[in-house]
Amino acid sequence: MNPQAKLIFTASLLLGTTITISSHHWIMAWAGLEINTLAILPLISKSHHPRAIEAATKYFLVQSAASALVLFSSMTNAWHTGQWDITQMTHPASSLILTSAIAMKLGLVPFHFWYPEVLQGSPLTTGLLLSTIMKLPPITLLYMTTPSLNPTVLTTMAVLSAALGGWMGLNQTQVRKILAFSSISHLGWMAIILIYNPKLTLLNFYLYALMTATVFLTLNTMKVLNLSTLMTAWTKMPSLNAMLMLTLLSLAGLPPLTGFLPKWLIIQELTKQDMVPAPTTISLLSLLGLFFYLRLAYCTAMTLPPHTTNHMKQWHTSKPTSVLIAILTTTSIALLPIASMILTII
Fold first, then answer.
1. What's the EC number here (predicted)?
2. Considering only CA atoms, which of 207, 181, 220 is closest in space to residue 264?
């Protein structure tokens, strides 16, 4: 892709995200979502492979339908209340339609079917954008409309997302699909706490984005797309492979790594809200996801000798990329000791 075109698309992504998260009018938020959708499509289909074109088409259709629902819910609310302010979503039907639209944009169950296919057909760098930056505007809209959302609907979606994300990731061999179902499972944790403590949702998203960025950048550096190539990656970059194993365990939520912090806080907050069945259920369902995280970590720790000389070829990366991955990895696996400071901020 032309570097100038890539710069324009990246700037458009930042512009659309900024417009959505800083707007108070529904039309401006909708415009930001549309700019984001149009900017990411060329990045998905830049390889000109039929699978990439299919992924771009699916993404366009789903996001267009979700944006239309966002516009329809805001117009319905404005018709009944006379308010276009995002924080004034008071009409029940509008709130329900908005919840469905945002769930479709994020990939929450039962609107999750498009997400693994789109991520599988995208390059790893574009998959990183789809898993992090593209999720920030919808989560911001949910954050701003929190008082109007239906707790029962969100809790149901959250539990189903945690169950389906863990269950459908069990038999996958493609790393991008595993990360897609991992994202669906993490979205369940974000959605279940949104009504009761929205700041924990943002904390969970920020830490998830940090850990996911580390995993995607590491996999892109090692050119890993499936489990078979992951098993021999240790022969090429042993130190980076060890960091990847720790990051995957952190993404799984194992203590004392960083990924355990948001889950610990969410369980604590839900228990304070007298919702003991909800954290118990979602914690048990997260064990499904823990299985394929451990399988990925085991694949990165494989010590079987390589069978061909091609496996011994060293892969060299630029120094800025290596430094960035090292910084992200260190933060992803070592943030939990400062949990007390984060707790005081929250």
1. 7.1.1.2
2. 207
What are the tokens at 35? 């700019």
17 neighbors 36 (Cβ within 8 angstroms):
yes
User: pTM score, two decimals?
Assistant: 0.87
CA distances from 316 to 62, 240, 322 (A): 39, 12, 10
Q: What distance in Å separates the CA atoms of residue 266 and residue 152, rounded to the nearest whole number? A: 17
Q: Which residues of 238-277 are buried (b: 16+ CB within 10 A; e: fewer)?
A: eebbebbbbbbbbbbbbeebbbbbbbebbbebbeeeebee
Helix (H) or strand (E) run with residue 276 in it: none
d(CA 167, CA 154): 20
The Cα–Cα gap between 322 and 225 comes to: 19
CA angle at 13 for the pair 85 and 94, rounded to the nearest 5°: 30
The Cα 141–Cα 101 span in angstroms is 11
Tokens for 250?
A: 């952190």
Widest distance between CA atoms in the chain: 70
Q: Which single residue is written with the structure tokens 């060890």?
A: 242
Could you tell me the two tokens for 268?
């604590």
- Does the pLDDT at position 146 exceed 70? yes
Q: In angstroms, rounded to a whole number, what is the distance separating the alpha carbons of residues 246 and 64?
A: 38
Q: Which residues contact 193 (CB under 8 A, 6 or more apart)?
A: 200, 201, 204, 266, 269, 270
Element (H, E) at 344: helix 339-345
Residue 53: its pLDDT value, please?
A: 93
Q: Report pLDDT digits (tens) over 278-323.
A: 889 998 988 888 888 888 888 776 644 444 434 444 444 555 666 6
Write down how long the chain is. Answer: 346
CA pair distance 164, 162, nearest whole angstrom: 6
Backbone angles phi, psi at 85, to 5 degrees: -70, 135
Calculate the alpha carbon distances from 128 to 52, 122, 133 in Å.
Answer: 15, 10, 8
